[in-house]
Specification:
Elements lengths: L1 E3 L4 E3 L37 H6 L9 E2 L1 E3 L5 H13 L3 E2 L3 E2 L2 H10 L4 E6 L4 H6 L6 E11 L1 E6 H7 L10 H5 L9 E4 L6 H12 L6 E4 L3 H13 L5 E5 L4 H4 L6 E3 L20 E2 L2 E2 L5 E8 H6 L1 H9 L4 H12 L5 H14 L1 H13 L2
Parallel strand pairs: 3-5, 4-6, 4-7, 10-11
Antiparallel strand pairs: 1-2, 7-16, 8-16, 9-12, 9-13, 14-15
Helix pairs in contact: 2-13, 11-14
Length: 365
């Protein structure tokens, strides 16, 4: 089976799967190491990982882990983490899918062990409101340089010279993006309860757009599907989006769509420390912090599990790989089993680096 992650072709086969991951990477989803002669990589104290497991010394043995995420597109990055935890002997329970605010509270309370989908700046308010550093631990840089902002179709941008969100104060410009006949621009926006909702709502007030822009909310992926359909029919579109996400593969930046700038940086109070430099990318001030996704874990779990904590700190996935996998989901490979296979394929293709993370993590126990 071959998965195309933009810059690489990832093949899953038993022969390609590395030794320390053999027990966790079977396509059937086996999560415990068995005996055999495959093990050649070194675990702790000069032992192979399988030898360590056989001796009952794996750090996660007897401990269950509950992962959490908010949207299915985050399951891929979650499963990559699960694979590493499985190798360390942890039992992975069924993941929980919750809205971001609830996800943070549940992680702080121990109902969820970790989430691989915490945006360090965007979710700051959720972090603080859930107990902050006393209850939660943020580690590593799992996915770097994640972007958010507003986009319109390139054709309309060029025809009317639209480069800034502020230009939507003009009723005639705003009316170009009116989809329901009320004269206001319809902005495809965020689900209620998401961190981006707080930013959009703040900025509609800050930039004087309440009279000319309507923030359309609901299920984002249903709304963006309608937006893409309108684009395909030749209609102007205005929408919020982020990376990594499959949308950037369907509506290509610089060809189909273009980022809008904001007049100046203004964010909700919890993100007030972010400067204009911190919201600038692609040569524009996008209005949202250029962020990173990190692993957020329950503090008690981190304190009691140094090997897992070290693994959380070390692991990284390139943003383009996540977007490419999300595109596979958009193309129909979107069952939990298929997403797990994508994660296994990614690990197999990055075996040497992954084994290095595992060796360093096991040394921390």
């Amino acid at each position: 089976m071959v998965f195309n992650f933009r810059n690489s072709s990832i093949s899953v086969s038993a022969k390609r799967i590395g030794v320390t991951t053999a027990c966790a990477l079977a396509i059937a989803g086996v999560t415990a190491c068995g005996s055999g002669d495959q093990a050649t990589d070194t675990g702790t104290e000069g032992e192979t990982t399988e030898e360590t497991a056989a001796a009952g010394d794996m750090p996660g043995e007897g401990t269950s882990v509950v992962p959490g995420y908010a949207v299915l597109e985050e399951l891929f990055q979650t499963e990559i983490v699960n694979i590493g935890l499985e190798q360390m002997g942890y039992t992975i329970d069924s993941p929980k899918e919750l809205e971001y605010a609830t996800l943070h509270v549940d992680t702080a309370n121990g109902g969820i062990t970790y989430t691989a989908a915490h945006w360090e700046t965007l979710h700051e308010e959720f972090f603080v409101n859930s107990g902050g550093d006393d209850a939660l631990e943020r580690t590593g840089t799992y996915i770097a340089n994640v972007l958010q902002g507003y986009k319109i179709d390139t054709a309309t941008a060029e025809e009317y010279g639209i480069t800034s969100l502020e230009q939507l104060q003009d009723p005639e410009i705003a009316a170009l993006f009116d989809t329901d006949g009320d004269g206001k621009a319809n902005l495809t926006g965020c689900n209620p309860g998401w961190g981006c909702e707080l930013v959009i709502e703040h900025q509609l007030d800050e930039y004087g757009l309440r009279d000319t822009v309507q923030h359309e909310q609901g299920q984002y992926f249903a709304l963006i599907a309608d937006t893409i359909t309108r684009y395909e029919q030749g209609e102007p579109i205005l929408f919020y989006t982020w990376t990594p996400l499959w949308v950037s593969g369907v509506l290509t930046e610089g060809e189909d769509v273009t980022w809008l700038e904001v007049p100046y940086t203004s964010l909700p109070e919890a993100q007030a420390q972010v400067t204009e430099e911190g919201t600038s990318a692609e040569g524009k001030n996008l209005g949202f912090a250029v962020d990173q996704q990190v692993i957020l874990a329950n503090q008690e779990f981190v304190d009691a599990n140094p090997a897992a904590a070290k693994f959380f700190e070390l692991i990284e996935v390139p943003i383009d790989d996540v977007s490419a996998q999300n595109q596979l989901m958009q193309d129909g490979e979107d069952t939990p089993e298929q997403i797990r296979a994508h994660a296994e394929a990614w690990v197999a293709d990055n075996q040497e680096q992954f084994d290095g993370w595992m060796e360093e993590a096991l040394a921390a126990q």
